[in-house]
Structure prediction request, 115 residues.
Amino acid sequence: QVQLVESGGGLVQGGGSLRLSCAASGSILSINSMGWYRQAPGKQRELVARISSGGSTNYADSVKGRFTISRDNNKNTVYLQMNSLKPEDTAVYFCHVARGVYNYWGQGTQVTVSS
Prediction:
C-alpha cells in the first residue's frame, strides 16, 4: 500500500500562483509515475501533469507553460507549481501514484480561482 498526503490547495485570485505537494509513504519502492489529476464539478477527472521515475514529464494542453511538475525522490514527494491560474483551473486536485499494476490516489485538495 501507498499512502498519499496532499497539501497546498486554497483560494487564489486569477493570475495568482499555488503550489501543491504530495508526500508518499508506505510501499514506495518501484513507484513508476507520480502525478496530478483534477476534477471540476460535473466533469470527468482529467490528467493535469505526470512525471516518471526517470523525470520525463507530460502535461495537459490546457496547463502547458503555466504549470510545472517536479519530484523529490529523496522525500518521495511530488510538487505541482501552478502559475497564471485561471478560473477554469478551479477543481479538486488529486495526487496519483502508479506502482506496477496498482494505482493510488490522494484524498484531493480544493483549488479555487476567483475571477
